[in-house]
Write a structure and sequence with these properties.
This protein is an all-alpha fold. It is built from 5 helices and no strands. The protein has one domain. It is globular and about 35 Å long. The protein starts with 12 loop residues before the first helix and ends with a helix.
């Protein structure tokens, strides 16, 4: 089930942008976060970012924990999202995180 492609997720342009920015920030983060913990090696964030650049319409279930962790970093560690990320609000990040987390939980349940 881990390799299952989440074809039902249709990411809009802003959602793809938010995910991409959060992954880039995570693998290039210059200092230790104060509020969250990186759960993966920096290269893992970079790998997922490059993978999504190749095909931004497919998310695999096993990629979601990395994406969720990067969204948490963006939400909790970034001071002024709107100024830095073309009017992306903390609420936009939270809504996307919650949407993906729900999908991950629903699709990760043992059969």
């Amino acid at each position: 089930m881990n390799k299952q492609i989440l074809q039902s997720i249709k990411l809009n342009k802003q959602e793809r942008y938010i995910i991409g920015k959060s992954l880039i920030d995570s693998w290039g983060y210059p200092y230790k976060p104060k509020k969250i913990k990186f759960e993966f090696d920096f290269e893992e964030y970079k790998r997922i970012d490059e993978k999504l650049d190749q095909n931004n319409h497919e998310l695999e279930i096993n990629d979601l924990p990395v994406i969720l962790n990067s969204l948490e970093m963006l939400y909790y560690e970034n001071g002024d999202l709107e100024a830095l990320y073309n009017n992306v609000t903390k609420n936009d990040v939270k809504i996307l995180h919650d949407k993906l987390e729900k999908i991950y939980k629903e699709n990760s349940k043992p059969e």
